[in-house]
Structure formats: C-alpha cells, structure tokens
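Appendix B. Raw example, untouched.
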Amino acid sequence: KDDGLIAMLKQRIITAIVLLFILIDVLIIDNPWPFMLFVMALAVCATWEWLRLTWHGNRAVIILVPVFVGAVAMLQSWAIQNNYYLFSRAFDVLVVLCAVVWFFGMPLMLARGQASDPPHSLMLTLFAPFAMLATWWVFVSLFVQRGSIYLLSLLILVWVADLAAFFAGRRWGKHKLAPNISPGKTREGAIAGLFAVVVWLLASSFWPGSFAQDLLNQWSWVGVVVWGVLLGSLSIMGDLFESLLKRRAHVKDSSKLLPGHGGVYDRIDAVVVVLPVAFVLISVVYLQ
C-alpha cells in the first residue's frame, strides 16, 4: 500500500512540475496570448470532463458544449489582443452570477449530500459552460489588469489549502468531513487547510502586488483573516462539489488526461469556485 502511494505521489509530482513550468512560462511572457490560450485549453478540457459526469443524453452535447466554450474564449482573446473588450460587461455579470451560485447554492447541495442521486442533471450540465467561462474570464482579467504576481498569489491560496488538508488529514485525520461524499477528507485536514490559507494570506500581504496586499490595503488584519477563512472554506467545498459529481457518476477521476492527477477538472475544481468569489470581493472593495 505504501509503495503504491509513493508511486502515485511521484507521478503526481512529475505532472505537477510540468504543469507548473508551463504556467510560469505563459505567465512571464509579455504577450498575454499564450496565457489566454493555456487557460482556454484548461476550461475546454474541464467542461468536457464535467459534462461526462452530469450528462447522459445525446453524446454530441459533450463535444459541442466544450467547443462553444473554446470558441467564445478564443473570440474574446482575439478582442483583448486588439484592445477591444467585446463581451467584458457580459463576462463581469456572468462572474457575479456564478459567484452567487457557488456561494449560496453549492453549500445547500453539499449539505444534502445525496451521493446516491442519479448523475444526470440538466441544471448542472447547463451551468458547466458558464462556470468555466467565468473562471476563464477571471484568470484573464486578473492577469491583464493586475499582473502575474497578483494572479499567482491567489492561485497559491487554493494550492496551500489542498496540500495542507491532504497531508494533515493523512497524519492526524480521525473525523470524517463528508463521509457520504468523500470518505477520505477529514475535519482535521479541513482545519489545517483553513489555517494554511490564513497563514499564506498574512505572509503574502507583504508581497508587493499580491492579492493579500490588496485585501490588507482595504481591510484590517482581521478582515484578511475573515476573508481567508471564507475563501479557504469555498476551496474545500469546491473539491467536495466535484467529488459529489464523481460519486454520483461512479468514477474515481473526471478523466485520465493528467497522469497521477486524473483530469483537468480534478486539479481546478477549487479554483473554479474560489476565483469568481474572489473577483467579486475585489470588485466590491474597489467600488467602496
């Protein structure tokens, strides 16, 4: 068992390093086009994987909807490259609507925890492309308007929550967090994840141009902690949301696109939730 875990961790680490190198490369290039294409590819793949979990009707939908996501993202990428923000207002509204769904609807769905429900869901299928386009837009907007450091510092928030929850859960986890949804997740791991997020935000608030410094400039240290707990909680719930979809579909991973990690959606499930809410939080702050 330990040998299998070590082999799995090695595979995960290798894939993570490759993805991290790609991400860093597209972030440091002056031209935003490679980054927009990279994030577009993530959104298209994740949409395809999501639909495989929630749609069991005409299989053409699983192909056509991701193509739609890619086409819209490509069109807006072209517009941004030509300094013409074609659908900016519409995308901003979409992000707000998705943030509301994640903030209010997702906790209710997780509270029910009906893993035995049938996987087919028209509502969740319809929501998928809009959720991924909203995520794509936040990625692009933060990168273009606030820079790579800002975006990276926000992504690290999600990563530290996931890593801390994983390792603390394996080391000290005794009490199940959501046994009907994801038996492997523990309350101890979740607490460690929230603690890690708060520590990261407090530490990175000294990093010029970071997301945490932005929060600190508008809120007190207490405010940074409160928002850290909120975003950390949403990160955990985003992971649980996808776990619920997979459990209903009776699959372990959303796909096999990323060796050792499963699918693209498996890697960005928390990001899809955290980024829209963080974007709304930032927008509210700047409207004050």
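End of appendix B.
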